[in-house]
Amino acid sequence: MISQTLAQEVSHLEADLCFALADPTRILILYALDEQPRNVSELTNELGSTQPTTSRHLKILRDRGLVYAERQGTTITYQLSDKRLIQALDLLRSVLRDRIAHNANLMDEIEAVV
Fold it and tell me: Across-strand partners of 70?
């Protein structure tokens, strides 16, 4: 039976992390920030996005505690709040690659039979 604690944690996970990670641009922002802290302009240039779009994505990540902002004079620099986010994303990417390889093998087997 699923415990009440697990159900609550999963609910918070879905509301906070899963929503924040549901957009590929936000995931790319996290990877960029893993390399080094960056400001909005730097992220905008790297992503080939617009400044308002990048700022909206950063707000979502910041509101959910995945990144934090640090003011340096007139510039606000963003950083990852927890490096384990990248480890989790890398693990998910590994699972995805394995699923793709598995599906490709199934298709090869089907084609060999036909």
Answer: 77
Boundaries of domain holding 98: 83-114
Q: From residue 88, give the alpha-carbon distance in Å to each of 27, 92, 99.
A: 11, 6, 17
Per-residue pLDDT tens over the stretch 59-87: 999 999 999 999 989 999 999 999 999 99
52 plus 21 within the same structural domain: yes
Question: Model pTM greater than 0.70?
Answer: yes
- Report the side by side order of strands in the sheet with 67-72: 38-39, 75-80, 67-72
Residue showing tokens 């039976």: 1
In sequence order, which residues have a C-beta less than 8 Å from that of residue 50 and are 6 or more positions away?
44
Nearest of 64, 105, 59 to residue 81 by alpha carbon: 64
Give the total number of structural domains in the chain: 2
How far is it, in rounded angstroms, from Cα 45 to Cα 75? 16
